[in-house]
Amino acid sequence: MKKVRILSLLSVTALVTTVLVTAPSVANAAPACDGKSPIQSCVGVTSDGAPYAMQVPANFNGTVALYSHGYRYNVDIPAGIPLIGGYKVTNTPEPVPGGNAEVAKYFFSQGIAIVGSGFARQGWNPDSAIKTNVELIDTFKKQFPATKKVIAWGSSLGGVITQGLAEKHPDLVSAVAPMCMADNVSEELTMAGDFLWGIKVLFDPTIKAGNYSAGAAGVAESYADLVKVFTVMGKLQASISTGAWPDTSSATGKALQAAGIPSRSALLLLGLMAGLPTQSAHFDSISGPDGALKLTFPLAISPVLAILENGTNAAALAVLATQDVENQTGGAIFDNTKTDYSARVDAERVIFNAALSGNTAIDAMLGALSAANPGAPRAAANAAAVTKMKALHQNTGKINVPTVLMVGLADPITPAGASQRLVDLYAEQYAAEKAAAAKAYQKTREYKSPTNKLLMLWNTTPANYTKFDATGAPITSGPAAQGTNHCNFTSAQLVLVAKSLVQASSTGKLPSGGALNTAVRKAGNISIDKGISVPWLKAYGDNQ
Fold first, then answer.
1. Bridge partners of 454?
2. Residues 6+ positions from 168 with CB-CB distance below 8 Å
């Protein structure tokens, strides 16, 4: 089988808007507005130094849409680092996702204004970002006193910020949409950290994988880790068909190699332990090329290539976000001293038995990764740092206002399980509200049914989408399939969310019934099937 090129799939850096002007440098001053029509643009800086941008149509109807952008690296990435090199820290405001013109056009056509902050701090920032948004809402209302309603939405980490705003300040927003929402910081970085730890233990023990030094030295260590991780992933990719192990492999890895276990099986196991999707941008784990690999490719190769694509994203997040949060908390925050990786893959070892090279190989790999093996040293966190991390903003999952969730079923950065957690928690909340209504009926003889406040939009993957060339090699040069990659939404899907927010804001009710079914069908690759259920992030099950 031909080698497959690793694509640049790192999407944790949100795209910045292209429709804005430079914000003034004076913090907490009144917005500077250009007075233009039909769209007036205003810029300013909140009291914490966060630049913002507002765009207000001449037919402003009193509703404003507040958008929170996703995770942006908080350090510049040197040009020499593969895949993501050349990135520069930016706090450019982003009032619609990625500056999407179709979304802005829809809002303006409805007389709805848009606003977004670039936030004062990049990296993991929900605590400060929520405060910034509260101030920004107040600033907008003072500038435009006709404002009656605020709808809020955000992507990735911006989804965490949006949900947090609705939990802490439900009086400020009439409807919200956390899209491709990250989980809470501990669970999110455990997912990414589990995979990075496995790469270190098996394939390159010189990777630091956390516990970075303070200040500039820690940043330099994270850069070195990125280079090593991307190098290892490239070597693993080159040996997918042969199963050869990288020359940087640890003694533990070499022992598994000597036992005849291919490196691709070990890579897949690491992805399953972390909870990464086994469908990726170009690999559906279903399709195979015509010929001898028709059946073996989807069984033994495709899930590994999916982990390769998804794991590259997860490992980059683990390095950069871990260094960021460690810097905020003052010490190591990843801890797997008590993690039972065998329990993590009880179900998956049956489903992916062939790709994992059978039970004997699985047992050997899990034994090699167990806490009992001194060749696989576990990572211990700093207790004080963990305490500080847990003091960072954590979403409870309480739904206070009409809420629209949208996530790709195979998102490798913010897995669908983060949204599933809110779905499950809201099911409990809604059941409790119904029980309370029934209890109230016993006293008043008047039953007031609670209003549903959650709409779950699943961005689904096609039935099959892996493509092959005439030689049977997979084609990876095309765009990522729907439902894969990070926050990989079309303009039509984003407009669907926007329309749902507008309806909920104006009527107090989310769309439903035939009208919703029609809108979902037109958006494409969206399902509202209540039968869809995905696992929560693996960290939630560790102590059960």
1. 403
2. 130
pTM confidence score: 0.95
Half-sphere exposure of 202 (CA within 13 A, CB side): 31
Residue 33, Cβ density class (10 Å: 0-12 exposed, 13-18 middle, ≥19 buried): middle
First to last CA, the chain: 42
Domains of the chain, each with CATH number or no CATH: 32-183+397-541 (3.40.50.1820), 186-390 (no CATH)
Tokens found for residue 169: 């300040």
CB-based burial label for 248 (10 Å; 0-12, 13-18, 19+):
middle
Q: pLDDT tens digits for 210-238?
A: 999 999 999 999 999 999 999 999 999 99
What does the pLDDT look like over 390-415, one tens digit per residue? 999 999 999 999 999 999 999 999 99
Collapse the DSSP code of 316 into the 3-class scheme (helix H, G, I; strand E, B; otherwise coil) and give the result. helix
Residue 423 bridge partners (DSSP): none
The CA distance from 420 to 185, in Å, is: 16
Report the chain's mean pLDDT, rounded to a whole number: 94
Report the distance separating Cα 402 and Cα 415, nearest Å: 22
Q: Which two tokens stand for residue 259?
A: 């036992």
- Confirm if 452 and 426 have CB atoms less than 8 A apart: no
Helices marked H in 70-204 — which ranges? 101-109, 126-143, 157-168, 185-203
Helices (H), 110-184: 126-143, 157-168
- Which amino acid is located at 237 in the chain? Q
Four-point Cα dihedral 383, 387, 392, 394, nearest 10: 110
3-class SS of residue 154: strand
Cα 424 to Cα 416: distance, rounded to the nearest angstrom: 12
Q: At residue 20, does pLDDT exceed 50?
A: no
Please list, in sequence order, all residues whose beta carbon lies within 8 angstroms of the beta carbon of residue 305, skipping any fewer than 6 positions away.
4, 237, 240, 280, 282, 283, 474
pLDDT at 405: 98
The strand pairing partners of 41, in sequence order, are 55
Give the tokens for residue 378. Answer: 């576990």
Are 88 and 107 in contact, with CB atoms under 8 Å apart? no
